[in-house]
Amino acid sequence: MAMERTKLSKFKLPDSPGVYFFKKARKILYIGKATSLRDRVRSYFASDIVSTRGEAVARMVNEATSVAHTKTDSVLEALILEANLIKSHQPSYNAMAKDNKSFNYVVITKEDFPRVLVVRGRELFGLQATSYKLQAVFGPFTQGLALREAVKIVRKIFPFRDKCTPQTGKPCFNRQIGLCPGVCSGEISKGEYGVVIRHIRQLFSGNFKGLKRQLAKEMKAVAKAEEYEKAHTLRRQISALEHIRDVSLIRHERVSAGGGARIEAFDVAHTSGTETVAVMTVVDNGEAYKSAYRKFKIKNATNNDVAALVEALERRLAHAEWPLPRALVVDGGTAQVRVAERVLRKAGVGIPVVGVVKNERHKPERLIGERRVTEAYERDILLANSEAHRFAVEWHRKRRQRISFK
After folding, report:
1. pLDDT number for residue 53
2. Architecture of domain 262-404
3. 3-state SS of the chain?
4. 5-94 topology per CATH
5. Domain boundaries in the chain?
């Protein structure tokens, strides 16, 4: 029997951070994290759930028969726990939102002085995966911006290496601001740095309590050995873990509560019909995904914006290896939208098309398209469109400059 908002009280959801589970009998359908478990779960029962979260989420809520939760001491802990639980249970509706290559991961490299990096699944599971050996992989993390904020918090507690060259004798910039422990300048040995990496691995494994106990044990040992500076550092780390300031994560969750999706935008640029180019930009889960941007030198429609758009769309759809977006954005009104829809129908692709209509100052005035799509993804649509215009103008300008110097 499907749940109702009026009956949520029986699940005793607290007003505190944690991870929630939508379940159908014993089967976990979806796992998510929350700043307030009570408020976040309630939001799934809003009357506008389809327009704000999408049809898949609405279907999941209708299918679920219960909600369970695990309370955490901080949003950071909830974010890490969510990633570990998604990896363990692989709920169907989490997998439906993105494939593994679209998620974000924390990796630790296999080196004498390991690096801690945030990478996308495309890099981790794609052709670039052979560029470095790994000793540990944590994830998937569903929100890239939140993960990067989390890593900033972790790095303040446990400074680590990401880019600098070990043992050069010169402190890198991150060493100067306290975010590198001195791998570059030779201030920390391989063994000492290995302990830092073990702490970070324990943290991203979700074992916060075990990590605190380990740090307390190490603090007693160094204090007994009268190594008071090390004892002070360990005491500070324990205190930081117990009083995590994850305001940035709370703010990010409020901004991204509507969920994320891949949005693609297209724009055309030329000078009086010459040097016509088109571009595609991508916003994925609220972020500009610049490595997925694409350029199209228009070959057959040099003095017609609509025909140039058609050529760019047809060439984009020929790439079956590129994931399809939740919505496709074009710069213009009804004419551009209808042309794009015609190209998609011809290719047998059912994606909503949104047109961004500009005023006389070339500023967005209104959006044309399915209301549920424009309302749910307005911020992402406008970001993708703005990026497309910037990217097209920059590339076109560079092409003109190259020609003028010939």
Report:
1. 66
2. 2-Layer Sandwich (3.30)
3. CCCCHHHHHHHCCCCCCEEEEEEECCEEEEEEEECCHHHHHHHCCCCCHHHHHCHHHHHHHHHCCEEEEEECCCHHHHHHHHHHHHHHHCCHHHHHHCCHHHCEEEEEECCCCCEEEEEEHHHHHCHHHHHCCEEEEEEEECCHHHHHHHHHHHHHHCCCECCCCCCCCCCCHHHHCCCCCCCCCCCCCHHHHHHHHHHHHHHHCCCHHHHHHHHHHHHHHHHHCCCHHHHHHHHHHHHHHHCCCCHHHHHHHHHCCCCCCEEEEEEEEEECCEEEEEEEEEEECCEECHHHCEEEECCCCCCCHHHHHHHHHHHHHCCCCCCCCCEEEEECCHHHHHHHHHHHHHHCCCCCEEEEEECCCCCEEEEECCHHHHHHCHHHHHHHHHHHHHHHHHHHHHHHHHHHCC
4. GIY-YIG endonuclease (3.40.1440)
5. 5-94, 103-210+237-249, 262-404
pTM for the predicted model, two decimal places: 0.62
Q: How confident is the model at residue 152 (pLDDT cuts 50, 70, 90)?
A: very high
Domain 5-94 identical in fold to domain 262-404: no
